[in-house]
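YM 10:42: Uracil phosphoribosyltransferase sequence, as discussed on the call
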Amino acid sequence: MGHVFVMDHPLIQHKVSMLRSKDTGSKEFRELVEEIAMLMCYEATRDLPLEEIEVETPVAKAKAKALAGKKLGIVPILRAGLGMVDGMLNLVPAAKVGHIGLYRDPETLEPVEYYCKLPYDAPERDIYVLDPMLATGGSASAAIQFIKDKGVQRIRFLCLIAAPEGIERLNKDHPDVDIYVAALDERLNDHGYIVPGLGDAGDRLFGTK
Ligand code: PRP
Ligand code: URA
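YM 10:58: structure's back
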């Protein structure tokens, strides 16, 4: 089964609380999502392998460390996942960015795909899938399946707020995928919204409510 890492760093927790408030407007909401994504990226890349290299400082040769292993890719689930991209790229600027377009049918809550474009060398990369909300888990599960179908082997999923139902679904469908979450909430309501959650992440990011 995939691991679930709850990122309980105080800065992340504080910023998530600000994000939840209905009084937080789109500008601040966008800034917070980017900042939290950056902090989560820092935590979720802790286990990246390093190799020893030699660098020449102005004073002497030094043995130093550099990232080794596979290159990284990030794949936001459109739309709301877009809000997390810059936070990741701030720390991993060489990552390539793919996009998966999915929206959740408001009646059936099933994900509907409308776009998929991944880096040509995605199978050679470790892929971080981004979406602020993991509710039923349908969107994340479908996105991860598309990415696996393109030959990617190592996938992690980063989200800001998750419902237990989404975690369970993702663990069942993709037990090989580790989940990084800033907050684990209580439940879903009858409309598939996370309670207490933060409302509709896409609408709050882009001001489309
Ligand atoms: C939201 C969210 C996830 C999905 C989560 O997207 O960003 O992608 O719902 O729900 P699920 O776990 O039940 O699938 P939405 O469908 O509202 O599209 P948007 O990002 O374009 O607003
Ligand atoms: N998508 C959102 O944006 N918010 C929720 O609470 C559930 C799905």
